[in-house]
Amino acid sequence: MKNRRDFVQGGALVAGAALAAAAATAQPMPKKRYADRLTDEAGRYAVAPLPFPSDALEPVIDAKTVELHYNFHHKPAATAANNAEAALAKARDGNDFALVKHYQKELSFQLSSHLLHSIYWTNLGGKGGEPKGDLASALGSEFGSFAKLKAQLAAATTAVEASGWGILGYHPVTRKLMVLQCENHQKLTAWGVTPLLVLDVFEHAYYLKYQNRRGEYVNALFNIVNWDNVAERLDAART
Length: 239
Ligand code: MN
Description:
The chain is mainly alpha-helical. Among the domains are: 63-123, Helix Hairpins (Orthogonal Bundle); 133-238, 3-Layer(bab) Sandwich (minor pseudopilin epsh fold), CATH 3.55.40.20. It has helices spanning 4-9, 11-14, 16-24, 63-94, 100-123, 133-143, 146-158, 207-210, 214-221, 227-238; strands at 164-171, 176-183, 194-200. The chain has a three-stranded antiparallel beta sheet. The structure holds manganese (II) ion. Manganese (II) ion binds next to helix 4.
């Protein structure tokens, strides 16, 4: 099946009258295989625009929190990851690795932050409810039921020590769905896991509105999860 890029690249096909004809016959848009974009054309880490207006997550997450989070926590992570790579390139050129530990840690932390935040935004903006189709079946077989998965994910997320994330992931080697806690942006992963749904529990994600009530924020997040996005991610991770 063609993806959207193929569709656009086959521009002649959809030009002018052909476009009108296609619309008239109500052809469904080709399904796009899900992929995050973390870099720009030059290969530098770059942050995609928010997929919704900053007030789109109200009342679960207020607009001010979204704006601060995106501009002052997500964006700087991409910049810092670029800076860490530049510093490591300089270290190689000068054969001076005195600060290698610092910059390796910095790269791991900041790039993981950029990746998880990129997923977080696209996971949200939905209407919550329950997942459907293959995702629903997979959650049922792995966790017993959606309700049990939700209970475990919410509890694991709320219980993250200090700053971090709750994550629903898919492991392509074991072909299992799994819940993980993540401390900071990079600790406690299982190597190779593909994050499908990530719930940010750094205080910057919720403190303006929820203060110390992390569990209340985590439960409210389930009202704005975009399960279609999670399902697209599972579909992509399995193929
Ligand atoms: Mn965050």
